[in-house]
UniProtKB/TrEMBL annotation:
Coiled coil: none annotated. This is ABC transporter related protein. Pfam families: ABC_tran. Keywords: ATP-binding, Nucleotide-binding, Transport. PANTHER family: ABC TRANSPORTER RELATED, IMPORT ATP-BINDING PROTEIN. SMART domains: AAA. The keyword Nucleotide-binding applies. It comes from the Bacteria. Residues 19-254 form the ABC transporter domain. One of its GO terms (molecular function) is ATP binding. GO terms for cellular component: membrane protein complex; plasma membrane. InterPro entries: AAA+_ATPase (IPR003593), ABC_transporter-like_ATP-bd (IPR003439), ABC_transporter-like_CS (IPR017871), ABC_transpr_LolD-like (IPR015854), MacB-like_ATP-bd (IPR017911), P-loop_NTPase (IPR027417).
């Protein structure tokens, strides 16, 4: 049977993945030439799972994450978040979709310096014209360990505390998928472990899918699955690996 559809935002029959990339490519202009950052990456991430993305420097990890999160557009290919093809949406519609369904945690926290912790956390809702749900916000603040700190300014926080604010800000909209780019990269090992625990446990508690880029095999070993990129291509995967298995794979890939 042939069916036609007038909407460009549905994916068709497959809705069993939280994130699905189809033949994704991305080239950047570099003078008269092109840098090919991603070359035909296709993959699917299961709902509620924790996936780590690893690979040598320049292998395309940040490009991958930015495209998957709708922060940048691919040269060709499609990105589905649930059953929505975000590559078929207008720029305004992508922004709206991102604000409601996607959380993003950056290495550098990206907090607004003149806003308090509480205001920073509420920001994605306010930008979307929505009112914060007090009880949800309080539950989130407790969950990330920031109780009693909501009136502080970012300059009054440690790196670990600032990243907890960034995590709460990413989760306040109850996104289905949370993307994180080196979220522990600027933190010492102990603080990084604590922040990773917070990210994992809150994602688990609220049934969110977590996709995280890291250089650190110790961080990636917490994931259900590790995907490796090399030269802009998918170069393998390990399910529930140890940090030594991950480190060995990175050596093979020429980290
Ligand atoms: N805006 C841009 N303009 C031109 N080239 C870019 C741009 N962003 C990335 N690239 C190039 O695309 C390739 C992939 O970069 P990307 O940042 O995705 O890699 P990465 O794996 O995240 O690297 P790293 O681990 O060093 O952060 C690299 O060759 C990079 O130089």
């Amino acid at each position: 049977m042939t069916t036609t559809t007038t909407t460009t935002t549905t994916a068709g029959p497959r809705v069993d993945s939280a994130v699905r990339l189809v033949h994704l490519t991305k080239s950047y202009p570099n003078g008269p030439e092109q840098v090919v950052a991603l070359q035909g990456v296709s993959l699917a991430v299961s709902p509620g799972s924790f996936t780590a993305i690893m690979g040598p420097s320049g292998s395309g990890k940040s490009t991958f994450l930015n495209l998957a999160a709708g922060l940048d557009t691919p040269s060709t290919g499609q990105v589905f978040i649930g059953n929505t093809d975000i590559t078929a949406l207008s720029p305004d519609a992508v922004t709206r979709f991102r604000r409601r369904s996607i959380g993003f945690v950056f290495q550098s926290y990206n907090l607004v310096g003149h806003l308090t912790v509480g205001e920073n956390i509420q920001l994605p809702l306010l930008l979307d014209g929505r009112r914060p749900d007090e009880r949800w916000q309080q539950a989130l603040i407790e969950s990330v360990g920031l109780t009693g700190m909501t009136d502080r300014l970012p300059s009054e926080l440690s790196g670990g505390q600032a990243q907890r604010v960034a995590i709460a800000r990413a989760l306040i909209t109850r996104p289905t998928v949370v993307f994180a780019d080196e979220p522990t990269g600027a933190l010492d090992r102990r603080t990084g472990d604590q922040v990773l625990d917070v990210l994992r446990s809150t994602a688990q508690r609220f049934a969110q899918t977590l996709v995280l880029v890291t250089h650190d095999p110790h961080v990636a070993a917490a994931a259900d699955e590790v995907l490796f990129l090399a030269d802009g291509r998918l170069a393998g995967r390990l399910v529930a690996p140890t940090s030594s298995q991950i480190a060995a794979r990175l050596v093979e890939l020429g980290r």
